[in-house]
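Thread: Class I SAM-dependent methyltransferase, structure

OP (GT): Posting the sequence first so everyone is looking at the same thing. Length is 242 residues per the record. Can we get the structure tokens written out before standup tomorrow? I want them in the notebook alongside the other entries.
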Amino acid sequence: MGFYDQIAKYYDDIFPISEDTVSFLKASIGNSPKDVLDIACGTGMYATELSNEGYILYAIDLDERMIESLNNKVNKDNLKIKFLQGDMKELGEKFKKHSFDAIYCIGNSLVHIDSFTEIKELFITIKELLKGEGKFIFQIINYDRIISKGIKSLPTIINNDVPLKFERYYNYDKLKNKVMFKTVLSVKNEKIENSIYLTPLICDKAIDLLHEAGFYEINVYGDFKGNKFDKDNSYALVIEAK
């Protein structure tokens, strides 16, 4: 069983929905109805929220348990979200008959792709799937800060209602230009550990790849409140491109 299979039932308790994120997405996408694709949707908390707001949602995630969780939400609330299990690198095939007003990928999902070449290929596919003035929004951790400051961990997430504790550790391998990401989820009497290499996409590299993929207007933020991005101090990198 994979890591995300194991944590799927706790995912919404670890990462509860952020109203700042919802507000940012709605402002960026524009008034509903709009055709929107959620890449690496997880349990679908943002897809369901936007669907409830009148947007026409499509969603994809690699993990079967995450999609099962989204399916439960769709059935419970009678939502009209079209979703499937699949790899984000296969978007061109999975959604070749569709076009979107907006596509978003949040939650540091993008850096699970193995190389900058594959990230660029994904950007090209996304650009092809967008309508003329369509927007691509993504959010990852600020890897400029992780690398330059030698950051080894992010603040531990604690939810006393479950209860659970989620620890996140980072180790940058300069030779491989990879970040080893280790997590420890302690919940009730269970401890779930995982480690995976991530591709550290820094801000300038992300902008270069977006330009190469055909995006011409790019806005950069340090969070979903719309604050200015600071390479040394922002915890997140949020990019809006069209």
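GT: Both are above now. Quick notes for whoever picks this up: The chain has a mean pLDDT of 96. The longest helix spans residues 64-77.
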